[in-house]
Design brief:
Shape: globular
Distance between the termini: 29 Å
Largest sheet: 6 strands, antiparallel
Number of strands: 6
Structural class: alpha+beta
Radius of gyration: 17 Å
Strand content: 15-25%
Helix content: 40-55%
């Protein structure tokens, strides 16, 4: 699934820093990871649902670099729960979205998605910064879903981030991660946001030893 090509320059400092944390996580380069697909398949099996996925935010959209049982184009942030989960760092779960007045006729409940039961938990990157969510969903109502889904999602979220940050993976994709961080630093410099420049530079210095590269 391709990411939107919009310019981060229109986004807030928090959004840009979250983008830096996403580059530093290594998650963006794991769309073909057998281990992540395995983790999502295990999550779907554990919750007996057809759909599980990793959702990240970028350029006003939510997109799925890794998914199980779902092929979807990027969705506008306003049509998802991802921003709410990322900003509050709080999992959510619904037994049936169609019984929720605010969500009954939302994009997620309509074709082709047709979600009914739905849950999401935050994925945490550098310094605990939320960089996206891990989700699980069913096309049927599930009265048991809120109680069952959140613990399972929180557990697999930790395992996903451990896999993304594994040394062998960071050494393989280190140059890409550092290039992305350097681009964000250049943008923040052009914008005159010194605090953001310093924050992203710290992220880059923290990531550098894990990449096996000598310098930038």
């Amino acid at each position: 699934m391709a990411e939107s090509g919009a310019d981060d320059g229109s986004r807030s400092s928090d959004d840009v820093y979250r983008r830096a944390a996403l580059f530093a996580s290594g998650l963006l380069a794991l769309h073909e990871s057998p281990r992540l697909h395995e983790l999502l398949a295990e999550l779907a099996d554990a919750l007996t649902v057809p759909i599980a996925g990793i959702c990240v935010l970028g350029h006003g959209h939510c997109w799925l670099p890794v998914a199980h049982g779902l092929a979807s184009a990027p969705i506008a942030e306003r049509d998802t729960f991802a921003v709410q989960v990322v900003e509050t760092l709080t999992p959510i779960a619904f037994a049936d979205l169609t019984t929720e007045p605010q969500h009954a006729d939302g994009l997620l409940t309509r074709a082709p998605l047709n979600f009914r039961a739905y849950a999401a938990a935050p994925l945490r990157g550098v310094g605990g910064t939320a960089i996206g969510t891990v989700i699980a969903a069913d096309t049927k109502p599930r009265p048991d879903f809120p109680a069952r889904a959140i613990p399972a999602l929180e557990d697999v979220a930790v395992r996903i981030m451990e896999e993304a940050g594994a040394p062998h993976h960071m050494r393989r994709i280190g140059r890409m991660a550092l290039d992305g961080l350097e681009d964000l630093i250049r943008q923040a410099t052009r914008d005159g946001d010194d605090a953001l420049v310093s924050a992203i530079d710290k992220v880059m210095r923290d990531v550098l030893p894990r990449t096996g590269l000598r310098g930038v």
